Amino acid sequence: MALALFALALLGSGAQAAASYNSTLAWVPFSQTQFDGNAALDTDGANGDVQLFWTLGDEYSTYGIASKSSGYLAVGFSQTGAMTGADMAVGYTDQNGTFMFENRHATGFIVPEISQDQTKNMRFKQGYQANGVTAFIFDKKNQADCLLDQGNVAIDSFQWMIYAHSDQNTFAQHAAGDMGKQYVKLGTSNAISLDIARTTNNSQNFTVVSPEVVIPTDETTYCYSMHKMPTTANRSYLIGERPPKASPLLHHLVLYACYGPADQFESMLGQPADCNWQNFSNPCNGFVTEWAPGMSARTFEDGFGKPFGADLYQYAMLETHYNNPGGTANQTDAASYEFIYTDSPVATEIGTLTLGDMQVNGWFMDPGKPLVAHSTICTPECTSKWPAEGITAVAVFHHMHYRGVNARVQIIRNGTEIAPLSELYDFQYGYQFSKALSNIQLLPGDQLITTCEYDTMNDTTPVAGGQSSRDEMCFAWVDYYPLNNVLGCTQINPHLADPSQQNGTVAMCLDSSNPNPDLYPSKSLTADFQHLPVSGNNCSGNALSKPNGAAILSTCPDTDVCYSVSVPRKEPTSASGDIYFQLSAPTTYSWVALAQGTAMSNANMFVMYASADGKNVTLSPRNAPGHQMPTHNAAADVVLLEGSGIANGKMTANVLCKNCSSWSTGKMDFQDIVSQWVYAHLQGLPINSDDLNTAISHHDKSGGFQWDLSQATGGPDANPFLAGVANTTSSSSTAGGQMQTPMMQAHGALASIAFVAIFPIGAVLVRLASFPGLAWVHGGLQIFSYVVFIAAAGLGIYLARQDSYLNQPHAIIGMLLFGVLSFMPILGTIHHNIFKQVKKRTAWSYAHIFTGRTAILLGMVNGGLGLKLVNAGRPYIIAYGVSAGMMGVVFIGVIVFGEVTQKKDTSGVPTSPITGPGESKGQEGSGSESDARS
Fold it and tell me: Could you tell me which PANTHER family the record lists for this protein (predicted)?
């Protein structure tokens, strides 16, 4: 789901001013006066159709959301304005008219998953749906307990709020336009970056425009052009900026301030852009601004401005990076950036400090890792140049490339880590922005550690840091006040730039008063420091800190059915094969099962149901060699642990399995980052049996998911599910979707071959070709394709029965096609024999032709429905969509061509040799009969 970019709706004199009753919002069904703040989330200004209200608290804050829609309504707390990582509240009414509230978490641009915690992170208060309005009120915890499936809220600054709504109460993808995002100021901090460009009475505009360049066909190109700032005073101030539409090949642009004598830059003015980037040395090192995908306009708050002018810098270098992996030729661009500035003095002069890997090249990351960290240090020797009272950070722009996941800047003061300068989780390359901060003070002598974390799972070779978009970067540009001379602070290896220099890491401090950076050794580059004690966020995505307790991964494929797993720390060096897992569900379920494997067949299965007395649970280890009722597996070595039983309407089984690392038909590595699991359950009356082999009815729902067991390892060899023993975290794996097993992949491949290849080729051939025996070739191809489809249908029906998919549209359409196509050879034979006699189409002809055409197109569409049903990965969807789309266009084009030709034939107008009636009657299967076949 792609979210559109929206401008920030400014909230008067401040978001914390009490929200008085607004008569234009009389449609909102709850009292507005109970809230302190209000903002329209959609684009209709203060009186928009999606309204957010809030009142901030110390631990929990209360939110109200209302929309002029009659279906589900969702509001999310997002780190970046994207769906990925968003902590979402969803409200809707069920089929009985009861208002339902859910806390969900989005792991990507997919349907958000139900969160395991439905009571602590978010607390539902009231809901309403009537008269074309949906609204609800809820509490949200300010600081999350688990950042893997929850989110912190920036109550003292700006917070990205996303929303979606529908006129249907089934939670699914919204219609185009029924969503959006806003950067809302919940707190009262003096943040300076706002995503809108505002002019003032004494402001002016100027635009930096690069000379037009022909973009090279090289994958990576950097171009540089020099520009003079509009210096009408010794000191003017940038107060806002507005990026124009960019070339689709523009990866980013940066404007650098050029400090130093003016004559060294004047010679570059008015010259063509220099795109010989590998031999170009940029003489400008001050950071002014950058554009990257996702960034919109922004304005500094009133009283703030970035100074430039005769006593600072008068020239700026524009750097444009073009990414052209496809080698597109003959593309031109004249990149530009518009600024709003004023000559009037401002109350607060702000500057930008560059942190991160300023050397860019020379570092590598291991491939095939879910999270790899890269850090650089800004040392106390450089920060000691700040004013004695320190500086105040008000915004930070984190920048990485496509593999980026998380970013942060830590502050080390006197050897101890204090609250971080910034943390950004779930980075999205297409949603970059300047993150507002709540006036964080930095003092001379502070040490700053900038860390970027990347996902290299799709890489098979080491990932390099570099300027190409296929490489990676790690930057953090910090806006602060008051302005001082320190431009950048990091560490480098001089040998990488100049082999004659010593090979080793040194600190670097970049000062606007010195054209050369200051390089020096520093003990801070290797010094240890004391971390703050971990408080909450025990399942944070921070790979550099892991709790000491047992690690538990949990996933809930349904709101009330949850599964958890934990591997004791000794397991990697032990041969015992111990693993702990938990099944949890309400007593309204007849049975619930969890299994190791990719499908029920040959899986290592564990079924939980109520015991004979109804006070405890029975755990039955089972297996099934095929599609039949699983039977008791006596070889399983399992123990039902303390905490198991039935209480408060809930069944729980805490289980120790001593031989789950292998079973008769499979095995599992307890350090596997992609371990395969399946689940199933049946709602209904309790079984109430102690028999481990009691009969169970067919499930009403099943599915599969993956667990990264390396993240579930830790803690002592003890029951991890008892209170106080473990740190429970939520899995970020996809739950509830059917895993693509080899059998399922075979079903999809065979059906695709039939409907995207052989069927349409046979139909196209009879329309375009003309040779003796064409009818037999056509019939043979179609019969062969039907045989392939029979194999696909057999696999599909087996899988649909196994996973309760027989009532899904994909299965229904598939069985309909299976039945209809069985009659096509008969229709084709009758059509062929009659046509040879009467030499024109009959009712049998039309039945054969149009049934065949409809079936082929419906089969192509049904393939897409199948991919959606199993939550197929994006590469599969793209590959099928392109193949089916291209074949569909060709197929429809040939149909239209053939029908036009057929009409010309019957009207006596001469036709082309391949379709006209000019062939002899002895050429069976050619001539005008070919115009009558599908």
Answer: CYTOCHROME B561 DOMAIN-CONTAINING PROTEIN-RELATED, DEHYDROGENASE, PUTATIVE (AFU_ORTHOLOGUE AFUA_8G05805)-RELATED
